[in-house]
Design brief:
Structural class: mainly alpha
Radius of gyration: 22 Å
Helix content: over 70%
Strand content: under 5%
Number of strands: 0
Number of helices: 4
Shape: elongated
Distance between the termini: 74 Å
Length: 145
């Protein structure tokens, strides 16, 4: 062994590592520097959710159809989250394809790790936000009752 690192035959895994790295950077930058779109205050969000829950309960108990919720528009934050997820998933797919083509396991593992970390980071952030929102809504409902 001469100690040279050869990149021959590591095409898919290399692209996967680049996509995974971009996805992870995008997720972390979006988390720390975002949100980039204007967002309503926390009080307004909690109040709107509480009123929506009350309306659904009243409509259901009254035998009426529950009001439909309009689809939220696409903004920069939602687009960035989707782009990070797509890049992370693409990195995972390329890691698997590289493994199937007998590319080095280290390169395939790197692509899979970066893509998986980008996806996991976004899911953990969303899960923590959902738990915090549920606690706030519960606390608000408790004070209103």
């Amino acid at each position: 062994m001469s100690g040279k690192i050869s990149m021959q035959g590591v095409k898919l895994s290399s692209v996967g590592m680049m996509l995974g790295a971009c996805a992870l950077l995008l997720a972390v930058i979006h988390f720390w520097a975002g949100p980039f779109s204007p967002t309503p205050s926390l009080e307004a969000v909690v109040a709107a959710k509480t009123v929506a829950i009350r309306d659904v309960v009243v409509a259901t108990l009254g035998g009426k159809a529950a009001p439909t919720v309009p689809a939220s528009p696409w903004d920069l934050d939602r687009t960035l989250m989707l782009l990070g997820s797509v890049l992370g998933a693409a990195a995972l797919v390329l890691a698997v394809l590289g493994f199937v083509r007998n590319e080095p396991a280290r390169a395939c593992g790197g692509a899979a790790a970066l893509g998986g970390a980008a996806l996991a980071f976004q899911f953990v952030v969303i899960a923590v936000a959902a738990v915090v929102l549920a606690i706030l809504v519960g606390a608000l409902l408790k004070t209103l009752a």
